[in-house]
Amino acid sequence: MPGPLSLADLSTTNDSDFVAAVGGAYEKSPWVGEVTFKKLKPSASNPIASIAVLHAAMAKIVDLADVDKKLDLINSHPDLAGKAALADSLTEESKEEQSKAGLNSLTEDELARFTKMNDAYKSKFGFVFILAVRNATKTTILKSFEARLKNTRMQEFEQCIAQIHKIAWMRLLTILEPADTGFLTCHVLDTASGKPADDMEIVLERLSGEGQLGVIGSFVTNSDGRLTSGRALTGKDFSVGVYKWTFEVGDYFAKEGAKLAGTPFLTSVPLIFGIDNPEDHYHVPLLCSPYGYSTYRGS
Amino acid sequence: MPGPLSLADLSTTNDSDFVAAVGGAYEKSPWVGEVTFKKLKPSASNPIASIAVLHAAMAKIVDLADVDKKLDLINSHPDLAGKAALADSLTEESKEEQSKAGLNSLTEDELARFTKMNDAYKSKFGFVFILAVRNATKTTILKSFEARLKNTRMQEFEQCIAQIHKIAWMRLLTILEPADTGFLTCHVLDTASGKPADDMEIVLERLSGEGQLGVIGSFVTNSDGRLTSGRALTGKDFSVGVYKWTFEVGDYFAKEGAKLAGTPFLTSVPLIFGIDNPEDHYHVPLLCSPYGYSTYRGS
Amino acid sequence: MPGPLSLADLSTTNDSDFVAAVGGAYEKSPWVGEVTFKKLKPSASNPIASIAVLHAAMAKIVDLADVDKKLDLINSHPDLAGKAALADSLTEESKEEQSKAGLNSLTEDELARFTKMNDAYKSKFGFVFILAVRNATKTTILKSFEARLKNTRMQEFEQCIAQIHKIAWMRLLTILEPADTGFLTCHVLDTASGKPADDMEIVLERLSGEGQLGVIGSFVTNSDGRLTSGRALTGKDFSVGVYKWTFEVGDYFAKEGAKLAGTPFLTSVPLIFGIDNPEDHYHVPLLCSPYGYSTYRGS
Amino acid sequence: MPGPLSLADLSTTNDSDFVAAVGGAYEKSPWVGEVTFKKLKPSASNPIASIAVLHAAMAKIVDLADVDKKLDLINSHPDLAGKAALADSLTEESKEEQSKAGLNSLTEDELARFTKMNDAYKSKFGFVFILAVRNATKTTILKSFEARLKNTRMQEFEQCIAQIHKIAWMRLLTILEPADTGFLTCHVLDTASGKPADDMEIVLERLSGEGQLGVIGSFVTNSDGRLTSGRALTGKDFSVGVYKWTFEVGDYFAKEGAKLAGTPFLTSVPLIFGIDNPEDHYHVPLLCSPYGYSTYRGS
Q1: Fold of the domain spanning B5-177
Q2: What's the gap in Å between the CA of B138 and the closest CA on chain A?
Q3: Which residues of D touch B291 (CB under 8 A)?
Q4: Are B276 and B55 in contact (CB under 8 A)?
Q5: In CATH, which of 2.60.120.560, 3.40.190.10, 2.60.40.180, 2.40.30.60 is domain D183-295?
Q6: Which pLDDT tens digit goes with each residue over B8-28?
Q7: Can you supply one Gene Ontology CC term for this chain's record (chains A, B, C, D) (predicted)?
Q8: Which pLDDT belongs to residue C2?
Q9: Which of C1, C245, D52, D235 is the most buried (most CB within 10 A)?
Q10: Which residue does chain B place closest to D289, by CA atoms?
C-alpha cells in the first residue's frame, strides 16, 4: 500500500484519478467525488487547502442531495457483522473498519446479538444501522445500537448521515496527508492561588495501535504556566491518535507549601485525550487546586 | 509486629501504656502523650471516638506549648538523610519514614545535595528542616527544600509545626485501628445535558505498595448518576492509600448519541486520588461533557 | 381565568373534558389529547402522577405519528409575527406566547425582517418555522432563525417537532397544578482546601415578571456546606421561573484567612438560573476557590 | 490633593522626598522607605519599573527585619474602631481606610463588639489586630476577627505582617501612577461541543464607589471565542476596582440549536470580579455548557 497522497498531488489530478483517490470516502457512491471535483475545480493554482475543506465540500453535496439519494447512500453500507462480512464481500474500507472494531472475531452469541439488532433496526426504520466503528469497541457499538433503536425514523436518518460523514472523514485521513497546520499546546493554572502553575513537570505519551504507551515528550511549565517549548507537538508528529498527559500536581503543590494531606489527594494527574483532526489546534489545559481539577478541549 | 490497636483498647489503658502506645507520634516528646492522657481521661465510659479526635487533642497541646518547647520538639527530629540516618541512630518511626521515601538509598551526589540543603536551612533558620516524607518522592522533598529556604524564619517555624502534626497523624494511622466511619462515594453528572449520567461503567482500583494496580470493584451508575451500591468502599476496605477510578465516558456519550469525533476526545477517563483519612467520607465525583470534565474532593 | 387544574381533577374527567382541558397543548391538534386519553385511561384509581408523565405520553403519540400527520401539526402553527398575528386570528395560546416575546410590538423594520425570514424558511423547507418563544427575546428568536436556515430539511423537521413538544410542556404548565415533588438544594465546596464551605451566607431571589428581583430566602451553610434548612424551596414556592443565588464568597475566604488581594478577585458571587420543571429536584451548587468557581444543574 | 505621582518622577526624587512620597505605605515606619531608597538607588537611568517592584522591595526589607522591629511595626497600627479613631488621632491613611470600611459610623453595640474583640486579641497575642479593611465590610472584619482569635501567636504574627504588606500595596496604589502594562482579556469556550463560543454578546460594567454599575464596553466573541478587540480594557481604563461581565449564554445556545428547556437553565450569566493589580494581565474566561459553567482568574 502506497503512502498517503499529498493535497498538492490530489489537487492536480484529473477527475477520474480524483474519484479513484477519494471517491471511496462515501461507500459505493463515486458520485459524491465526481460532483465535488466539479465544484472545487482543484488545480495547481487552486489547490485544496486541507482535508477539512475537502470533507466539508463532499459532506455538503451529500446534505444537499434528495432523500432518495441519501437513502441509497445509507443502504449502500453493509450490516455491522452481517452476512456481507461473513461472505467476505465488504469493500476494503468497510472490511478494515469492522475488523479494527473486532467485528470479524465475534463469538457465536455476539454474532447472534448483532444479527438480532440489525434485523430489529431494519424492520423498524427500513434502512441499515450505520455507526463509525473504526475506534469503537463492541460495547460501544452495542450500547449505541440499543439506544438508537429508541429513536424516531427521522432522528435515525439524520444520525446515519452524520455517521457517514464521520466515516468519510476517517477514510480521508487514511488516504491523504493532512495540511501542516495542527499542533498541541498546554497550560496549567493554579486555581487555589489564581496564578499560572510555574515549574510543573509534565510528560506526554502516545498510545500505540497495540495499546502500549510510549513517551514522546517531557516538559516543565514556565512562569506563565505554559510549555517552554510553546507547542508540545507539531507537523507530522501531531497525528490522529490517543495521547496522555501526566501532570506532577503533587510535586508542584508540595513545592508551593500548600497544606497537603500526608497522603495527598492529588499526586500524578493523568489525562487521556484523543486527537481526531491533525490539521487543528488542540489546547488541552489543566486547572488545578490541591483538591480538584478540570480540563477541556480548548483552542 | 502486632496488629493495630483498637480505640476501645487504647481508651482503657493506664497513662504509661497510653504513652507507650501513642507517645511516639511526636518525635522524642512523650510529654505530648502524657498531657493528652490527662486532658482526655479516656476510659470504657469515655472512649476516644476516633484517631482524628486523638490527633486534634495532641496537636492542640503542641500548639499551646510555648515557643521554646516547640523549638525543642522541632529539633528533636533528625536531619533528612543526615548523620543520624547514616549512623543508624534514628527512632523506628523516622527510620521507616525516611526509608519509604528512599532516603536510605541515596547516591553520593544526592547525599551531598541533602547535606548542603540541611546545613543551609539550619544556618538560616536555626532549626532542622522537617517534612512529612512517608509518601513523598526525592523530587518532592528537594523541591520543598528549595522552596522553603526562601521563607522567613517565622513562616518556617509554623511550617515545621504543621509538618510535625502531619507526621503524627500518619504515625497514629499505623498504630491505631480507625473508627468505622469512613466510606467512598461517586457521582457522575453529564454537564452537556444537565442530567445525571445513567448507565456509565466505572472501575475502581487500588495502588499496592509496589505500585501495582489491583481492581477492587466494578460499578454502573444508576439513573441518579450514583453507584447502585451507594458506597464504593466502606469499613476496613476503605483504607489509607492511592486509588483510581476509570470512567467509561466514551461509551456513555456514544450511547447518548452525542456528536463525537471519529477519534473521540474522551474515552476512558482515569482519576487517581489519595485517601488520607480512613474515618472520613470521600465523595469523588465526575462532571463531564464529551469535551471536558472536572473532579474534586467532595463530601 | 380559573386557577390551574389539579392532576386529581384532570384524572377524573371524561374524554371530552380531558381534551377541552389539555388538548390545546398541541396547536389545533385535539387528536393528540384524544389518543392520550385512550392510552392513559385516567381515573381516580389510575391518576396521572405528574405533568411530566402526561407530557411524555402526549409527546410519544406525536413521535409515533406518520410524517404527514407531523407535517400537518407543524403547519397548524402560525408564523411568528406573521399575518395571522396581524389579523389577530391566533389561538389564545399562540397569542399569549407571541406577546410575551414582544412579537406583538415590533417596529416596521423588525416586522419586515420577520416576514423575510418566514418566507425564506418556508420556501426552503416547505413548512413554517417553529420556536418556543414564551421566554425568548427578539434577539434569541432572530439568532435561532438565522442559524436554523442553514440546516437540512430533515434537521429542521426534527427541530420543529422538538420545539412543539417544548411549547406543549409550557402550555401544560400554565393549565395544570404540578405534582408536589420538586425542590431546590444547594451545596458549597471550598476547592482550595477540599472541604465543604462552612458558615457562608447565601441569599436566594426570584425574578418577577417585570424583571424585579425579590428576596425569598437567606441562608447560611452548615459544616457540610449545605443549607441548614436542607431545601431552599419546596412545594408551591418552587415554581417555574428565574432565580438568583448570591454567595458571600469573599466573607467566607476572609474568615478562612485565605491569602486574598486588597481588592479580592471574588466577593459576592451571583448565579442566575431558570427552573423549567417544578416537579423536579434542582441541585445548584457552587464549587469555589478564592480565584475561581464553577456551578452546574445537579440533581 | 494632587494627582498620583508617576514612577518616573518618583525615580528622580532625592531620599527625603522619596520617603515623604511613599514612606507612609508602612504605618509610622519611615525606615522602610529609607532603606528601600538605599537599596534601589532609583534614578533617571535606573527607574523603578512598576509599583509591584517597589512594593516587593519594601516588603522584603520588612520581612528581613528582626522580630522586635516587626513587632514595633505591628503595634504602630491603631486599633480598628479604637480609641485613636474616636480621638481622631489616626494617620491620614488609617483614617481614610477605616472610614471606607464604615468603621467611623458604628452603632453603640458594634463599637462595644469591636472594643471587646480588640481587647481579647491583644490580651491573647500581645499585639494589635491588623486587617486590610479598605475594601472590607463590617461583616468581613468581624468574621476575620472571630476566626483569627483561634490562631496561635505565631500564625497571627505572620498574618499581621501579611496584612501590613497588603495595606502598603493599597496605599502605594493611591499614591503612584501604575505602569502601563495591565489589561483585561476574555475567552468563551463551549464545553458541550468542545469549540470556542462564536458570536456571543458580552457586556462589561464597572462598579462605582457608590455601588452603581456603569457600562464600559459591549463585545461580541469571534470564531476563536475571544473579543474581536482582543483586550477589553488597557492603559488608564484598566484600574483597580470591581467589574462585571454579562455573557448572553442563552442566546448563544439558542442559536446553536442546543436542546434548551422552555425556561432555560442559563440565560444571562453575570460574573463579578475585582482587579487588585492594575499592572497585571487579567484573563477572565467563561467555560460554559447549557447546564453549567466555570470561570477563574487566568493570565
Answers
A1: UraD-like (1.10.3330)
A2: 10
A3: 191-194
A4: no
A5: 2.60.40.180
A6: 999 999 999 999 999 999 999
A7: peroxisome
A8: 62
A9: C245
A10: B192
